[in-house]
Structure formats: structure tokens, C-alpha cells
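Query structure, 404 C-alpha cells:
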């Protein structure tokens, strides 16, 4: 069913330059009954490295059971989801800060395996991702303060912490307000006890210098050597969500047959960065990033493989002004250097993290999340498989309606 009230804007390079249609939208996380203002908690999380914001740690934990398993690939623990019938291509996923153990990302990998890809999530946090309870604490912090009077809203008695009041009005408003305040204090203490130290240990994502990039090179080499058995892997794509997007952009900027030069010449990667020389081939053959920090021109000017960008609405990681600049730069890369193609898909009404942590109870977010994954699968089918080679050059409309 079409959703005529929502238009998602796709900017395909090369295309005629088109203006964006930005919507005034605060960085919000949608819940069932209200919108959460991320800015309410930003001051408490000022210790996060450049490019990481409170919205990077907020969202919804999906229901479901993952069917893949963990195994060592190139000396790195990875979540692996294998297809029933392989198309000869693999997709290596760089997860957000909730890591390879995050059920949301595992379910995405399983969907990729359903499409014929060998899907691999690299555990570059060495089994210690940011715990998912941080999302619950941030949600608690961002809830409106309760006042000492009975709540009167459309939820029909939703009171302290969003919990249904029992007893038909017999609750104590003052006690509810006190409990709400205490919950916020506990949530803040838990966050400050873990989050700053976690970021200090793990460090920022690329393009800052990092010792993690070589982990991907080892995984890529092992995949192409046939470590998983079955159908040989001939091409590899990379997907990066939020924190992981920088790794994809770095890999996509590596010159052919080299694993020693960093993205944009930044020299990222240390200790073991030369494990994979590629034997004259690219490290990866296509990529996609979703709600990741994109700096123009630095993140883009050295790209060497086709790329799909999933952009959230009014996202500080990839704001509208940068989207417009990126479109111009990528168009030049394609026409002048023969690199690409590239595509930027902008999703009005969404928020940072929607493609992995979006709440499926929200129809708009659910449709956007599904559309983003569908586009990623189509992109990799086009650029990594023989049957999709012709589709990579098919014209795409610049504006499409969502489907639900």
C-alpha cells in the first residue's frame, strides 16, 4: 500500500542537480506514545568522541531469534549467517556501538543471507560492545518530568515512567514524581559509570587513526581464501551502520592491491594493516553506509567503488547541507574519474539509527527501515552478482513513495 503522505528522496549520481526538501525535525526517537528529545541528555554524555552523539545510543531492541553463529574468521570472532543457496558474494557488516552481539544487526545479517549472500558481522569490540541497557537508561532520562498532580493525557492513565497506573486513580502523584526523579538519577549514574570508559577504551571510528581497520583486512582475506567452504566468494560488499560506517568508507578508499594506505590518505590502521594485499584486486567491490558521519570532501574524495548512502532526516552525522555537497562531489567522481556509481537516499521523518534501531511499532519508521534494507540488498545484487550486473545501470526515479 502506498503512503502518499511520505516521500523518500533518492539522489542517484549522475543525475540532474535537484534541491533537497528538508523538513524541520528535531533529532527524535519515536516511541509508542511520545517523541523523545535527544537534546535533553546531550550534556550528560559529553565524553563521547567526535562524531558520537546521544542519538547513537538510542533506539529499539528488536524481537526475534537469530539463526547464525559465531566463528573465527581470519583470527577475528564474527557472527556468520550462511545462505541456503549462495550467490558467490559476501557482505561484511561493520556494526554500530552495540556490536556483533546486537540482535537487530544479527537479524539484518540473516535477511542478507536469505537473499543469497554470506553475511558476516565483525566483532571489532572483542566481545565487549556497549550494553543495550544503555538505550533503556537514555529513554528514561529523556522522558518528561512528572509533576505532583494526576496525569491527564491521551494515553488514558499513563503515569510514572510510561507505566500504566493501576487502581483507577488511586496512585499518589507526589510519590510518582519522586520515583520518576529517582529513576532518572539511577539511569544517569549507570550511564556515566559505563559510557565514558567504554568510549575511552574503544576510541573513535575512522577517519581518526584506529587499530581496528586491520581486523577487516584479515576477515576479507580469509573469506576470499574459502575459509567458510561451499561456494567460493568472488566479490565482497561492506555495510556500515553509525560507528561502523567509517570502516566501510575507509575500505572503499583503499587503492587496488594495497592495504597500507588509509582513507583519504589519513594513514588509518596500525599493527597488521598489511595482512591483505588483495593480489591486485579491490579490498571490497561495493559498500553501503547508514546514518554514519560523512565529512565532505574528506570522507568521499578517495572512494573507489560503488556506494549507497542511507541518510536520516535532519541527522547531525550527515546533515542536509553535507548531503547536497556530497551529491555534487560524487557526481564529479563518477563523470570525471569513472568511479561509482553512487546513490544517496534521504528518508524524511526518520532519525539517526532508524535502519538498525528503529521501532517497528511506528509505521513510518518500520516502512523506512524495510525500504533501506531492500535498497541495500538490491544494490549489492547489482554490484556483486552476475545476475544483477545489468540492473546496476538501470535508471532510477529521483522520488519514490514508500510502501507498507
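Result returned for the query:
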Amino acid at each position: 500500500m502506498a503512503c502518499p503522505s511520505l516521500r523518500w528522496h533518492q539522489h542517484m549520481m549522475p543525475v540532474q542537480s535537484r534541491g533537497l526538501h528538508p523538513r524541520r525535525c528535531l533529532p527524535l526517537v519515536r516511541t509508542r506514545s511520545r517523541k523523545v528529545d535527544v537534546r535533553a541528555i546531550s550534556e550528560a554524555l559529553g565524553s563521547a568522541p567526535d562524531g558520537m552523539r546521544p542519538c547513537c545510543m538510542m533506539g529499539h531492541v528488536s524481537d526475534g531469534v537469530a539463526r547464525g553463529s559465531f566463528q573465527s574468521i581470519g583470527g577475528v570472532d564474527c557472527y556468520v549467517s550462511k545462505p541456503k543457496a549462495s550467490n558467490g558474494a559476501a557482505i561484511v557488516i561493520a556494526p554500530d556501538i552495540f556490536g556483533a552481539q546486537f540482535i537487530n544487526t544479527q537479524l539484518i545479517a540473516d535477511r542478507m543471507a536469505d537473499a543469497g549472500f554470506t553475511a558476516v558481522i565483525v566483532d571489532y569490540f572483542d566481545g565487549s560492545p556497549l550494553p543495550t541497557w544503555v538505550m533503556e537508561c537514555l529513554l528514561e532520562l529523556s522522558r518528561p518530568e512528572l509533576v505532583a498532580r494526576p496525569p491527564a493525557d491521551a494515553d488514558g492513565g499513563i503515569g510514572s515512567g510510561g507505566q500504566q497506573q493501576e487502581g483507577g486513580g488511586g496512585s499518589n502523584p507526589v510519590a510518582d514524581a519522586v520515583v520518576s526523579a529517582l529513576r532518572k538519577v539511577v539511569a544517569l549514574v549507570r550511564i556515566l559509570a559505563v559510557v565514558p570508559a567504554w568510549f575511552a577504551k574503544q576510541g573513535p571510528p575512522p577517519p581518526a587513526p584506529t587499530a581496528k581497520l586491520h581486523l577487516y583486512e584479515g576477515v576479507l582475506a580469509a573469506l576470499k581464501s574459502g575459509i567458510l567452504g561451499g561456494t567460493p566468494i568472488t566479490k565482497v560488499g561492506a555495510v556500515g551502520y553509525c560507528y561502523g560506517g567509517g570502516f566501510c568508507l575507509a575500505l572503499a578508499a583503499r587503492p587496488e592491491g594495497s592495504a597500507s594506505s588509509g582513507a583519504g590518505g589519513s594513514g588509518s590502521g596500525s599493527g597488521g594493516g598489511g595482512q591483505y594485499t588483495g593480489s591486485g584486486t579491490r579490498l571490497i567491490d561495493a559498500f553501503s553506509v547508514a546514518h554514519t558521519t560523512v565529512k565532505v570532501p574528506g570522507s568521499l574524495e578517495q572512494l573507489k567503488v560503488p556506494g549507497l548512502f542511507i541518510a536520516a532526516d535532519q541527522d547531525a552525522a550527515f546533515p542536509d547541507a553535507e548531503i547536497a555537497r556530497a551529491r555534487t562531489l560524487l557526481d564529479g567522481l563518477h563523470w570525471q574519474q569513472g568511479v561509482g556509481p553512487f546513490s544517496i537516499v534521504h528518508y524524511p521523518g526518520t532519525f539517526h539509527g532508524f535502519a538498525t534501531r528503529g521501532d517497528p511499532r511506528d509505521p513510518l519508521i518500520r516502512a523506512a527501515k524495510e525500504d533501506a534494507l531492500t535498497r541495500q540488498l538490491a544494490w549489492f545484487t547489482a554490484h556483486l552478482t552476475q545476475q544483477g550486473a545489468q540492473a546496476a545501470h538501470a535508471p532510477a526515479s529521483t522520488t519514490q513513495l514508500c510502501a507498507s
